[in-house]
Amino acid sequence: MRQPRGIVLVALLLGMAFMGVLALLGADVWATTLRHERETELLFAGDQVRAAIRRYYYATPAGQRRTLPPSLDELLEDHRFPTPVHHLRRLYPDPITGDANWGLVLSGDRIAGVYSLSEAAPLKQTGFAPAYAAFEGRGAYKEWAFTFIPPANNRRR
């Protein structure tokens, strides 16, 4: 009697195909997890810049008018004081693009906030914390603007 020789080869090929499908599913889960992590990093980095702009605005030296920073570098070293003040430890890169460049929200010639330059659609669409409620339903990361708006009646001259 003859023994079928090709059955082991067919079983091996089916096993490899099954493992390939599992690997693709795992890669998809990994990519989604990575995007969620980058979104969380974007919320953190954007909020750090927003908070630094706020600190810059309120840390105005006596006798000077409160103003927004002219550049992001001023958040690293605020030269309005005899000893430079550091409102931000470092300039975070945009976690979505991986680039050091951010889109700038300008108020006149001053920086009021930042946003990602990515046009990709965010995974997170709902369930934001109240500080990020404006991000709900946005179609692209570039619509997530981290902005500090100075109070109109609180400007010291």
Write up what this structure looks like.
The chain has helices at 6-58, 73-76; strands at 103-107, 110-115, 145-147. It is mainly alpha-helical. It has one domain (38-147). Strands 1-2-3 form a three-stranded antiparallel sheet.
Features:
3 strands, 157 residues, 3-stranded antiparallel sheet, mainly alpha, 2 helices, 9% strand
Span between termini:
102 Å
Q: What fraction of the residues are assigned to beta strands by DSSP? A: 5-15%
The geometry reads as elongated
> What's the mean pLDDT score?
89
Helix content: 25-40%
How many domains in all?
Answer: 1
With helices defined by DSSP (H or I, 4 residues minimum), what is the helix count?
2
**Backbone CA Rg:** 25 Å
Write down the secondary-structure element order.
Answer: HHEEE
Sheet with the most strands, sense and barrel status = 3 strands, antiparallel
Provide a quick synopsis of the model.
It is elongated, with a radius of gyration of 25 Å. It is 36% helix and 9% strand. It is built from two helices and three strands.
Please outline the helices and strands.
Blueprint: H1 6-58, H2 73-76, E1 103-107, E2 110-115, E3 145-147
Antiparallel strand pairs: 1-2, 2-3
